[in-house]
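Could someone model magnesium ion with this protein?
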Amino acid sequence: MPESARLTVSLSQPFCSPDPALQPRLVLTDLDGSLLDHHSYDFSPAVPWLARLKQMGVPVIPVTSKTRAELFPLREALGLTGTPFIAENGAVVGLPPGWCHARLDRPGSGRDGVVIKHPGVDIGFIRARLKVWRERQGIRFSRMGELSVLEVMELTGLDEARAKNARQREGSEPLIWHDTDAALDTFRSALEGDGLQLTQGGRFWHVMGRSADKGSAVEWLIKRFTALRGRTPLSLGLGDGPNDITMLNTVDQAVVIRGCHDLIVEPSNTSLYRTQATGPTGWAEGVAHWWGRDDRRVEAAEACDVVAV
Ligand SMILES: [Mg+2]
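Reply:
Sure, complex below.
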C-alpha cells in the first residue's frame, strides 16, 4: 500500500489515544512572556493547544526563572500538575510520580508526591560560600534572603504573597550588588572556583551552580524520559528571553516568541521559528507552526472532537 494511502486509512480511523508507533513528544516552555502574557499573566490564547496536547498525551513542561513556590499555583491554573517542571532557571527540577525512577529517586515528600532534584548545587552551599567571600573580600551586596518582604516588593513590583514566594529559594540566590565593577570581577572569579556562576538578570545578579541553566535541566529531563520510556522524544521548546537560549539550543524544534523587550535572542538551533505574535498568542502560533499541519495525532484529536475552544 502506498504511503499516502496508509496515511489516509490512518486518518479515517477514530483515534483518541497516543499511538505507540509514533515518536513520543515533549513541549518545554518558558512562562513569562511566552505561555503567560508578560503583563496580565493571561494564557487563554494557548488553551486550545494545551487541551489538544493533553489529549494527545504530550507533556507540557514549564521551564521558568520562578521559584517552586511561585510556580505551584500557576501549575494548578494551567492544568499542568501531572507534568514535571523546571524552576529557578534550571536549578530546581520537579518530577511527578509518573516521571520517577524506582532505583534513582526517593519517594516525594510533598502532598502530591513530587520529587525535587537540584541539578546544580544546594542553596545552603551557595549561601555559605557567599558568607565566606563577603567576609574574606570585604565586599558589599544584599542577598534576597536578607531583604525584607517589603524591600522585595519595592524592588520587584510583586504583591506580598508573590514576594514571599520569590524569596523561597532552593538552588539560586539573587543579590543586589553595592560595590565596584572591579570587586564584582574578583567576586565572580572566586565563585567560579566554587563551581558557581554569576549571571545578570533584570533586577538582580543571580548566583547558581555552573551547570544549572535551563538547557542542562531540559537535557536531563529528556534523558530521564528516554530512560523511562525507552524512546527518545521529539522535543519542542518555546521561549522569549536570553535565558531561554540554552533550552532552545537543546531541543529538536525551537520557537522564539516575539518579546515585549529589546533583548536579543539568537539561538544557534537551525530548526528555529520566530513568531509574529507575542505572549500566549505567539506560543500557539509556534506550536501550530511545527505540529499544526503534519501531525497525525492532531488530526485524530480533531476527529475525536476533543478540542477545547
Ligand atoms: Mg520569558
